Amino acid sequence: MNYHSKFSVAPMMDWTDRHCRYFYRLISKNVQLWTEMVTARAILYGNKNRLLDFNVCEHPLVLQLGGSEPKEMAQAAKIAQDWGYNEININVGCPSNRVQSSNFGVCLMQTPQVVAQCVDAMRQMVDVPITVKSRIGVDNMDSYDELVNFVATVESSGCDNLVIHARKAWLKGLSPKENRSVPKLNYERVYQIKRDFPHLAIGINGGIMDMESSLQHLEHVDSVMLGRAVYHQPYLLRKVDGLIYQKKSSILSREQVLLAFIEYMKVQHANSVLIRSMTRHIFGLYHGQKNAKKFKRLLSGKIVKFEHLYEWLEYTDKNNDQ
Question: Which InterPro entries match (predicted)?
Fold first, then answer.
């Protein structure tokens, strides 16, 4: 099976909501976007519109699903497919206290058969791809053989696409934040998985900070995923369409991106969405530019009005801030 190289923005709790994803889509037309993790039970019993709604321009769009009960995961997957998602991913990598108390997320690496059961139940309910995002290990279960067993078990259920965060998780002694940086990265282990399972689509995640590194990883695996690097420097996505997908697309300037996002915010604000809940995602738009601090101060003000943003656009145009 042939897979096209992909570039994804990682699912990030409290960050990659629908407003954030719309903003990213303005910069890249082809990057694969992921939702924040949503639990299966929240979808089954919660406000589906609030949890699942998205703008049609966000495609290709992946819903990341949290849970460990096959029937619930399958029912939630069916709802997500009917809602219009292109792919559904099972979270087997999050080490938060919430997932530990409910025994899903990275805890599932300890029970690969449960993950396989979830994949099987979901595949029987939906036609869209079911994928898995994991770590390379958890706690003392961190040998390469154990990772191979996990991948092989998940594959046996029909999953042929995994994204692997190239560091293990410590459930005891480290906070979720520390789990993003303290365990050492081991990219070679992910590369080896691809060599040992050449027929699977294997993606890599963890500590990747720029496009140059992304291209180097794509020499060994099928896809790369960036998280916080994109959130803090979103304009790096302008290179994705050309470098990763070899597609020509009109690259918008920072000012054009901001102007387009202002128009989006106007519509959302008219529907009672707070301006700050949207502007919080664009703090990094001018990262690396000489007036980046001024832009952040503007967005950090007690009152942010659209007029202020138009004034900023006039300022950057006069000062040629590109």
Answer: Aldolase_TIM, DUS-like_FMN-bd, DUS_fam, DusA
Spatial CA neighbour of 10 closest among 2, 1, 21: 21
CATH code, 6-243: 3.20.20.70
d(CA 80, CA 48): 9
Each domain of the chain, given as residue ranges in start order, spans 6-243, 254-319
CATH for 254-319 is: 1.20.120
Q: Are 175 and 95 in contact (CB under 8 A)?
A: no
| 287 labelled ligand-binding | no
Q: Which residues contact 92 (CB under 8 A, 6 or more apart)?
A: 105, 106, 108, 109, 115, 132, 133, 134, 135
Selected residue with higher pLDDT from 180 and 283 = 283
Backbone dihedral angles phi then psi of residue 32, each to the nearest 5 degrees: -80, 125
Task: Convert the pLDDT of each residue in 242-275 to its tens digit.
Answer: 999 999 888 899 999 999 999 999 999 999 999 9
Flag whether 84 is marked binding.
no
Identify the DSSP state of 141: B
